[in-house]
Design brief:
Helix content is 42%, strand content 27%. By secondary structure, it is of the alpha+beta class. A hairpin with a 2-residue loop joins strand 3 and strand 4.
Length: 77
């Protein structure tokens, strides 16, 4: 399974969110594809107010303040 993590540089909430996602990764095997929203105008416009954003199979499963319990539940189903 590949999980997309949308973020950008100089985003403290993104750093914290990636740490949370990596904790979940210790319990569930998946790959993280980190996407810098500033490299694509369409993605930037779509997610600039939501980052960090976690996507699985093209669907947003959580954004903003990421929490372990929600990510674990969504990624294990």
């Amino acid at each position: 399974m590949i999980v997309k993590f949308f973020s950008r540089a100089n985003c403290p909430l993104c750093v914290e969110g990636l740490q949370t996602l990596k904790l979940v990764q210790e319990d569930i095997p998946f790959d993280i594809n980190i996407v810098d929203i500033e490299q694509d105008d369409d993605i930037h416009e779509k997610y600039m107010l939501m980052i960090p954003v976690v996507e699985k199979d093209g669907a947003v499963i959580q954004y903003g303040n990421l929490d372990y319990a929600t990510l674990l539940e969504q990624l294990s189903s």
